[in-house]
Amino acid sequence: MLALTDEGRTAHRRISERVGTLRLRLMECLSPEEHTILRELLRRLAALAV
Question: Taking the model in full, what pTM does it have?
Fold first, then answer.
């Protein structure tokens, strides 16, 4: 298990918030078809990482 300092937890929280915001912005720009293609690509990449 990894223990974070208060500073580490704060940095992790900020990064998570920014990633969430970026994800929402990206999804707003994609058509439903592009969204489906992106999800499939990410699924395939995740399968390769295992």
Answer: 0.50
